[in-house]
Amino acid sequence: MTSSELYHTNRKIFSIEEIDISPDVEVIWLNENFIEEVSGLEGKISVKELYLHSNNIDTLVNSSLSSLKFLEVLTLDGNQLTDLHDQLDVLSNLRYLERLDMRENPMGETGPLCSSFHHSFRIYDFL
Predict the structure, then answer these.
(1) DSSP helix/strand/coil, 87
(2) Which domains can be identified in the chain, with CATH numbers?
(3) How far apart are CA 112 and CA 31, in angstroms?
(4) Which phi and psi (to 5°) does residue 25 adopt?
(5) 31 exposed, middle or buried (CB, 10 Å; 0-12, 13-18, 19+)?
(6) pLDDT, tens digit, for every residue of 107-124?
């Protein structure tokens, strides 16, 4: 079985819900757009990699990330994420997540929170 990928990089997309995403897609590239929230991914349980870097996302709270049960890779660098603690609460439910990139976000919190969350990931890039 070959993996299914969806490429919508740098297409001036404002909402994930604008896109027709197949339920069997495994890799989604939505980087370098104008996306403000992670929604519209309900029922996409096959997604293993989600590239959302360089968008305008400011929170993961109440997002549809929790429906991505088998997500392994998530890039969120270069967004507008704040309140690291709230973001980590959401991310801690992604049991298969191996790679997370959250660099270049105005979170303002570092130190002990990053250290305590480190054990959940084999590879991570927070700051």
Answers:
(1) helix
(2) 1-127 (3.80.10.10)
(3) 29
(4) -70, 140
(5) buried
(6) 864 443 444 344 344 445
